Amino acid sequence: MNQKKTIVVALFALFIAIxxxxxxxxxxxxxxxxxxxxKLIERHWDPDLFAEAAAINTIxxxxxxxxxxxxxxxxxxxxxxxxxxxxxxxxxxxxxxxxAGKFDEAEKLDERKGLLLDRATMHMFHMMRLRDEGFDKALxxxxxxxxxxxxxxxxxxxxxxxxxxxxxxWFANMTASAEGLAAAVDRPFAEILLRHSVSINPELEHARGxxxxxTVECSVPQAAGGTPQKGVEYLERALRITQRKTxxxxxxxxxxxxxxxxxxxxxxxxxxxxxxxxxxxxNRFFNKIARHRAERLLRxxxxxxxxxx
Length: 309
Fold this sequence. Notes:
81% helix; 15 helices; 309 residues; single chain; globular; mainly alpha
């Protein structure tokens, strides 16, 4: 009798263990879906607290990917967690270090930023391959072939969200690389993803597709093929869509476009608008970062813009 009870208990324990393994992906997916729906990052008001939480959250998501490696929303969340932390938080720290003359510390942070964006890009490639096994073949077919592949496989709003994240991560990594955007051979492919996402729905994620495209056009020097006037058009369209509430758009117009055009009036206009803008609950975190940068850029105006008004 005792032996039978032992066997029953062992089988029950095995059943629970198996059930737990089966339930783990379901629990992970439910948590990720809820978090993405709540938009907690955008609404948070304390950048320092967010940075601490973001680092822990990214490690947690990496662990979740060990259990559920092919769940697309989890991949997207992980990708954008790396990009957001690197592009907004670390990049701001790097610039502050450089301003203070702490170049060794800035270099270390820059290396860390590059590693994080490499990781984001690795997950991005995995996500795209899950979407279609022809992704790598499409990349080798040139920009026209890749555009045809994108248009064939991505056409709904959900598809637009996926390629928006993919293109954003790709561009972020190219920007952080030693070669930079001007020399990036992958730039046409990332542009195709973002442009197609914008063609489906330009309003996604506070017009992020337009904002990234505009930032890219203004980040590449005109001598290397950049077209800042086109970048201004993209960003001004993003301003209209966001009703000027997403202050990172104004920041890009000042920090990238006005600097490339050496337009002092434009530089002052958009940075002043950032500092005078009211609070917006849906963009609280990124707007606070934008205000911090705007204050610093205005202090440095004579070192950045050389032409008079």
